[in-house]
Amino acid sequence: MGYTVGQVSAFAGVTVRTLHHYDRTGLLSPGGRSRAGYRHYEDIDLARLQQILFYRELGFPLDEIAEILADPQANALEHLRTRQRQLADEITRLQQLAEVAERAIEVQQTGVPLTPEERFEVFGEIAFDLSYATDAQLKWGDSKGHREAMARASAHTKEDWRRLMAEAAAWRAELLAGHDDGEPADGERVMDIAEEHRLYVSRWFTPCPPEMHRRIADDFAADPRAFALVVPPSQQRPGLAAYLAEAVHANASRRIHIANRI
Fold it and tell me: What is the C-alpha separation between 206 and 190, in angstroms, rounded?
């Protein structure tokens, strides 16, 4: 006894359109025929459909399912192990995104409420890109420094933000002046500016030893969203992010050299 496409659709929980698609692509073509010539699904077809639905539930693409089922000697176990690793990676990624969302909720709940006017007053052109916040959490979320920086940032009062943003503006003006005056990035003046930024991070967010400062500066040079947190686009110059990164690296080497002499 065979089963019609409608019957199979009902008890297998798939649409008729899906079954027709499987038939057209050769993934599952029913082998039986009714007296009127209509195709019917036999037990062997239903067993194959079970396999297809199993692999689909695990997220295998149809072409890979066809490859597995087409060759009786195919190493299905290896396909399953590969998919298991992919699913484990995806679970980890989703857990990290959930942590990002949780942190965003905490910041919203514990942060200082600002009206749009107050936000512009405090932050000016500096805008925090949510996509960068997500990427930063995924990249640095396991580090003690990042966790501490986020915790301290969420605890700052509106007055704290006014003060730290004023300090940032003063530091930024010195950086732009050094760059526009043609000062070398590894010269004493610009290294001192880089050191001011390192102390600023330590003062307001998290202890920032020279090696950490280097990683922060490399992020500025590699990601425009990160650099926009310290220099808004309207004030940026070509090569400025790389100029700052070079100054930070030079200053880090200087600080390490001084520490080793003590």
Answer: 22
End-to-end CA, the chain:
90
Distance CA 15, CA 32 (A): 20
Topology (CATH level 3) of domain 5-74: Multidrug-efflux Transporter Regulator; Chain: A; Domain 2 (1.10.1660)
E strands present in 6-140: 32-33, 39-40
pLDDT tens per residue, range 2-47: 889 999 999 889 999 999 999 999 999 998 877 777 789 998 999 8
Element (H, E) at 65: helix 62-70
User: DSSP secondary-structure letter at 41?
Assistant: B
Domain covering 112-261, topology = Globin-like (1.10.490)
Q: For 29-33, 97-101, 203-207, which range has the lowest pLDDT when averaged over its residues?
A: 97-101
Record the pTM.
0.52
CA-CA distance, 83 to 190, in Å (whole number)?
51
Residues 6+ apart with CB under 8 A from 131: 225
How many Å apart are CA 209 and CA 167, to the nearest integer?
A: 20
Q: How far apart are CA 64 and CA 76, in angstroms?
A: 10
Helix axis angle for 158-180 and 188-204, nearest 10°, is 170
CA angle at 93 for the pair 88 and 95, rounded to the nearest 5°: 95
Which strand (E) or helix (H) includes residue 239? Answer: none
Domain boundaries, the chain: 5-74, 112-261
Residues 54-87 have pLDDT tens digits of 888 888 899 989 988 887 666 777 788 888 888 8
Q: Residue 46, SS3?
A: helix
